[in-house]
């Protein structure tokens, strides 16, 4: 004789899956938490060791978020966080990871980075995505972010070291006036700030009449006959200094000003 006993365990399995998800994800935004972030970091590190490229560890903190929470309440603050996450996702690739650490703090793992300049462009893109106001219920809210950037392997290879250095760089960005980014490495930070400053000055250069054309004749070497000319752009600043086209043309192309 045989006796069969059956029971429906669908609810139990769904509950187990839910518990497993909550163990690795933020319940508000659905983003990976620090536990899952460590796992993603390990996978990225192993892959980048083979490719020889860099990984960017970006610590992002929203500016003045506590003021919104205190004045409008936590439900509005939570809705704003969800809206911010949607915009941040649009700035990243599928291979990158966005994680919420709690409160208004996020970590971005940027995979397969060619240079610090590429990370600076991503940081600018992230900040630009937050410029437009967020419509949360009856409120139109504005926010910005301070970003601290550490690069692997330049600034470290393990998770905790990179987090510490990115966190320190983020506080440096806040001390510099908020709504900006800072590299942990002073040399990289100085270079990125210089390029950002040039991009901002280049946006104002037309209104200030700092750009002009010069024409370089094209001459036959044998007859010395002029058969044409090459038009070249020159940038002469108000203070009398000049910026080389080798320096500002690539910035114009990267920023879309070209």
Distance separating the two termini: 84 Å
Mean pLDDT: 88
The string of secondary-structure elements, in order, is HHEHHEEHEEEHEHEEEH
Strand order of the largest sheet: 2-3-1-6-7
* Sheet having the most strands: 5 strands, mixed
> Which range does the strand content fall in?
15-25%
Helix content: 40-55%
* Tally of DSSP helical segments: 8
Q: Identify the overall geometry.
A: elongated
How is the secondary structure organized here?
Elements: H1 10-24, H2 34-51, E1 54-62, H3 65-72, H4 74-90, E2 97-102, E3 105-113, H5 116-129, E4 134-136, E5 139-141, E6 145-152, H6 159-175, E7 181-183, H7 186-205, E8 211-219, E9 226-236, E10 242-243, H8 245-255
Parallel strand pairs: 6-7
Antiparallel strand pairs: 1-3, 1-6, 2-3, 4-5, 8-9, 9-10
Helix pairs in contact: 3-4, 7-8
What features would you describe in this structure?
The chain has 258 residues and is of the alpha+beta class. The chain has 8 helices and 10 strands. The strands form 3 sheets. Strands 2-3-1-6-7 form a 5-stranded mixed sheet, with helices on both faces. The protein is elongated and about 110 Å long.
